[in-house]
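User: Okay, second chain of the day. Same drill as before: sequence in, structure tokens out.
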Amino acid sequence: MLYSEIEQLRESLKSRTRPSGSKQIAPEINEILKGNNGTNKFITLFDYHAGKFVFHYKVTEFTGYTENEFTIPAINNSPQSQFQIIHPDDIEHKRRYDYLVLFNLMSMGVRITPLHDNYEIFMRIVTRNGETKRVNRQSFIYEVDEGGIPLSQLDIWKIIPNNTEYVSVGLNYEGWKDVYDVFYAKNRLFLEFNITNRQVEILTLKAKRHDNTAIADCLHISTKTVENHINILKHKMKEFCEFRCPSVQVKDLNDIIHFVKKWGIIYFDFN
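Assistant: Same drill. Structure tokens below.
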């Protein structure tokens, strides 16, 4: 997804909102700030109508960027921005997931309880001095109007160990299972990656380290059918990678599992 497409979507949302009721920091944020003192977190408050951050907390301390530098264009890696804050390998995923959650799911009528339900994304940022840091950005709707349209968004950014390259998401929502199913289905549709329910089942069991015989028994199909599905998936992913990421080689099953995690093709629920 291009930055210009993100901007068009933000303008569309802006036209549906009115200015946020208050630029003062309300008691709820004060409580959050108290709970974050002395931790490795920084906070931003985004006004949908104004199209910009209207509050920053400890941003410079953890990223090196001033309030004038840590902007919406900068965290979407706008070509016109002086800074591109999101890691270049993560920006496409970040833009796509933000679009799917903040625009697509909410436009479907998914009701978000302010300061309760939230969406989190795990990704990497590049600080002003060039250091790469992995963050968990947790996004809450802060204010809504009478019609339930969001007015502002509170983001809590937490610095976490940089131990994986995946850009992943979490949807902390009361009806989370149904929302996850919709989210991942829409992500596959957006990526134009077709996968059957049976192939999802096989990959999920493979990720749990089941062998082909165990998968066949579990799904009441033959091992030959399992092998056929795996070969089809390899072919699909090779074609996809040739178009999206030519440098990536899909050689075996581990590559397939790595691929579907990295691109958000499947949600692996190991509970």
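The longest strand covers residues 132-144.

User: Thanks, on to the next one.
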